Amino acid sequence: MTRREFITLLSGTAATWPLVARAQQGKRMRRVGALMPYAANDPHAQARNAAFLQGLQQSGWSVGNNVQIDYRWSGGNKEDTRKYAAEREYGIGAKWLELLKQIAPTVTRVAVLRDPAITAGIGLWGAIQSVSPSFGVELRPIDVRDAGEIERALAAFSRSANGGLILTGSAFAIVHRDLIIVLAARYRLPAVYYERFFAAAGGLISYGSDSAELYRLAAGYVDRILKGEKPADLPVQAPTKYDLTINLKTAKALGLTLPQSLLVRADEVIE
Asked: Which pTM value belongs to this model?
């Protein structure tokens, strides 16, 4: 879950706001629209939705009792995924490059997979680019739009030595996550990903905000709106928890010896 997912989830409530403003408290059924940039059967989508529903329940909202959730799922639909923007604090891009150099000090070339159609892709690229000279790294942007393009670009990039990989957030990254993890392993590219489920699925390392936390924050916003607060008056809440996950099995397969200081800092080490 990203800030854009968080905002997208809230945007589905817009149609209910005029009704909410006139509504009286009680057991009247409220309706919330949730726009999800995933396929309905995606397990990660289900986990995020569970966090959202848990947050609603903690605020006294029960699906089927006093609130109804109308979902719209996008997932593999390319027109919908183009609209998805994984907005993050751009400074995290510098942290990704720092982690990559810590875990693989010999890396001097880094492919940055991004979606150039979204603000986050451009902003994160700029943040990574701003610190690359201090790490002695040459960057190469690779657009994440379709599977064939990703395969060709990474195959060409891997022909030279000392390469690494950073994956920034986008809907295309989610759709093509399995392919990207497989290609990183095939071409022996140490890789840093923006969210835990990449490391859990075989990626080397991930560092990013806790997606479940963001969905629970979204539930808090929905609660306040349904109780009559104006959306424009609500403060913006940034993520407060960031997780570092390391896949030790993948590190061993790449022949990497991880510094103990990094392992100690990790929130989760997958063996």
From this structure: 0.74
